[in-house]
Amino acid sequence: MGILSFLPPEEAVLKTSFLSHRWKQLWESLPVSGFNFRVPLPVCCRGGHVKNLKDLRDGKYMTVEDMKRECSKFVEWVNNVMISHQGSTIDELRVRFYLDKDSQRYIDKWIEIAMRKQVKKLELDFPSLLHRPSNAYYPFPKECFPGIEFLTSLCLVNVGVSDEAMEFVLSNCPMLETLHLKNSPLLIHPKVSCSSLRLKHLNISHSESIQTIEISAPNLVSFEYHKLRKVPFHIWYAPKLTELDYSNWLDFNLAYLVSQLYNYLPQLVTLRWIYQGFPNLPVFVT
Predict the structure, then answer these.
(1) Residue 216 above 70 pLDDT?
(2) What is the pTM of this model?
């Protein structure tokens, strides 16, 4: 029991699969705080081939077919761990690999299992080395899995989150305090609006299809927004907002930013903006 307790749960299932059935049953009943499914990822791409960290030294490349086989192995690994563990709760689930819509039914199942076990923190990151059209991203489900109400932190990177999916999450996760959405091509007009929302930290980054953002969040403390070009964002109600982190690289306009934040400048403790070059600062007449 002591040996198994020191192994990460996602690794323990591999180790015990080679041991007796009794050992496997013992692992399945162990309490775990969370699962972190990550493996070393390829770091560069050339001509439809990808190169991983190990092969950088040897100059070898993996083909796209090789990557598909690696994806199949990864999916099988996660399936084995998620399905075989019999614990009643999972505090945290993190999955990072080159997955997309082709793996939707498996990813949906992982989320369902985690929700059923009252997961509190969920993080999905599905990057791609090759160009991926927006309809090929894994679409985050708009489904009320039992246990979704226990979620306190949701981080979705390189995941297809639509406006409707975002609204669904905010409406069905009363305990949610942190929401991080990065590189979601399906976000167009995201809205954060709920009078009873606990949301404290909001990060919307590098989702280049966004046209407007609207925020009304009574408990929001920090808002982080990064995009190549500026879009109208309206903070209608955020009495506790004290931190803002903002950047748009191609057409930064400080006067525009100030106009958007005029009512909240007195209460901001931290204001960070990133700009490529030095902007022309506006002249304010008192």
Answers:
(1) yes
(2) 0.82
